[in-house]
C-alpha cells in the first residue's frame, strides 16, 4: 500500500516520506479501512515536530489521527455486515505507530463510525478530534439547555 511516514522529527518537508508499506491485517475486533481522506490536526503536527520524544522508539510513524473511508475487511469478532460501510475514524494514531496517512488502516471497530451516504469523506475526516473538542468545549461545564451560546470558531 502507499503511505506517508516519518522516521525522525522535523518539518514536514524535511521528514515525511511517501512510498510502499505493508498493508495491515485487521486483528480481533478490528476493521480494515481503505482510506479516502486523512485529516491533519495540531496534535499530529506537534508529534511530527518532536513533542513526544519517545514516539519513534517503536519505529517509523504513519501520521494522522482522523480520516474517512470504506471498510474492506473485518477481523474476528466483527460482523461481516460492516464490510462496505462508509466510516469516519478517530484516534487512529493514538498510542500506536499507524495513523490515517495511508491507503489502508486496521483499527478497532469502535473507532470506525458509520458515515451517512450524504456526508462526504472530506467532512468525515474532520469529525474526529475537531468535533470531539467542540463537543467538550460546549458541554464541559454541564447542560446548556435554555442557555444562549456563542460559538466563535
Q: Which structural class best describes the helix and strand composition?
A: alpha+beta
Global outline? globular
Largest sheet: 5 strands, antiparallel
The share of residues in helices is 10-25%
Q: Could you list the spans in which at least 5 consecutive residues all have pLDDT below 50?
A: none
Distance between the termini: 36 Å
Topology:
Blueprint: E1 2-5, H1 12-15, E2 17-20, E3 30-39, H2 42-49, E4 66-74, E5 86-89, E6 104-108, E7 112-114, H3 121-124, H4 129-139
Antiparallel strand pairs: 1-2, 3-4, 3-6, 4-5, 5-7
Notable features of this structure?
153 residues, two-stranded antiparallel sheet, 7 strands
Describe this structure in words.
By secondary structure, this protein is an alpha+beta fold. Helices cover 18% and strands 25% of the residues. It has helices spanning 12-15, 42-49, 121-124, 129-139; strands at 2-5, 17-20, 30-39, 66-74, 86-89, 104-108, 112-114. The strands form 2 sheets. Strands 6-3-4-5-7 form a 5-stranded antiparallel beta sheet. It is globular, with a radius of gyration of 17 Å.
Please sum up the structure shown.
This protein is α+β, with helices and mostly antiparallel strands and 153 residues long. The protein contains 4 helices and 7 strands.
Amino acid at each position: 500500500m502507499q503511505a506517508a511516514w516519518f522516521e525522525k522529527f522535523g518539518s514536514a518537508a524535511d521528514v515525511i516520506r511517501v512510498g510502499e508499506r505493508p498493508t495491515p491485517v485487521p486483528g480481533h475486533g478490528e476493521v480494515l479501512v481503505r482510506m479516502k481522506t486523512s485529516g491533519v490536526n495540531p496534535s499530529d503536527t506537534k508529534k511530527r515536530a518532536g513533542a513526544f520524544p519517545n514516539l519513534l522508539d517503536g519505529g517509523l510513524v504513519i501520521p494522522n489521527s482522523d480520516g474517512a473511508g470504506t471498510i474492506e475487511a473485518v477481523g474476528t469478532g466483527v460482523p461481516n455486515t460492516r464490510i462496505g460501510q462508509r466510516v469516519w475514524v478517530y484516534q487512529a494514531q493514538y498510542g500506536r505507530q499507524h495513523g490515517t496517512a495511508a491507503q489502508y488502516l486496521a483499527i478497532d471497530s469502535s473507532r470506525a463510525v458509520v458515515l451517512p451516504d450524504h456526508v462526504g469523506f472530506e467532512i468525515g475526516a474532520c469529525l474526529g478530534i475537531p468535533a470531539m473538542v467542540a463537543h467538550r468545549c460546549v458541554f464541559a461545564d454541564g447542560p446548556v439547555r435554555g442557555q444562549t451560546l456563542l460559538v466563535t470558531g
